[in-house]
Write a structure and sequence with these properties.
The chain is α+β, with helices and mostly antiparallel strands and 191 residues long. The protein has a single domain, classed as Thiol Ester Dehydrase, Chain A, CATH 3.10.129.10. Helices cover 25% and strands 39% of the residues. The protein is built from three helices and eight strands. The chain has a five-stranded antiparallel sheet with strand order 3-5-6-7-4. Strands 1-2-8 form a three-stranded mixed sheet, with no helix packed on it. The protein is globular. It starts with a strand and ends with a helix. Bound molecules: coenzyme A.
Amino acid sequence: MIDSVLYHYSVQKAGINKHMSKKKKLAKASKVIMTELVLPNDTNTLNNLMGGRLMHWMDIVSAIAAQKHSNRIVVTASVDNVSFSKPIQLGNVVTLTAQVTRSFSSSMEVYIEVTAEDIPGNKKLESNSAFFTFVAVDQSGRPIDVPEVVPETEQEKEHYEGALRRRQLRLVLAKRMEPNDATELKSLFDI
Ligand SMILES: CC(C)(COP(=O)(O)OP(=O)(O)OC[C@H]1O[C@@H](n2cnc3c(N)ncnc32)[C@H](O)[C@@H]1OP(=O)(O)O)[C@@H](O)C(=O)NCCC(=O)NCCS
């Protein structure tokens, strides 16, 4: 399977035809799976995994997915709501799966799914999930364009479609977008 395809198109600007190329990569090409064993140094005084440690692992696995998509250095731009519904215990095995859902110019949204397992007890525990946003940067830290994402599966298409709405919500909350310009969000409330 070819992971990336180069698409060429022309842009008419100031009467001059400029030839530009936009690279596209399959969403699944960015998939990263990371497995961790919860050790005493990862836990709080109740022997449960610390939320901060889980966030650290989520940041790493999703940064690697964003790097795979962009082949660039990436920085974390934002972290969407993360909630911890059930404690993950000492000795559990935590599996984190990350994949880029959609890219814009320099930013990429990454979906992370977390599951925990008590292997000796043969029990799979509740999972949680989150969306992180990364920006690809050059050596000076300046944002740089990344390839587009091509979703294939139903879930990839669903995540791709919702990404624009989530991007507008986080940019409005970060005061980087005027609420009036958040057309996708506004359409949610149109009667
Ligand atoms: C993220 C960063 C590179 C953006 O730089 P900037 O000069 O503000 O650049 P721009 O305004 O051109 O934005 C670049 C992209 O970042 C996105 N972005 C910026 N802030 C964002 C936020 N809070 N949430 C989501 N995306 C954000 C923009 O939407 C834009 O995306 P696009 O190119 O796909 O349209 C810069 O703010 C930075 O370096 N932040 C620190 C990153 C870091 O250290 N992370 C670790 C935290 S400890």
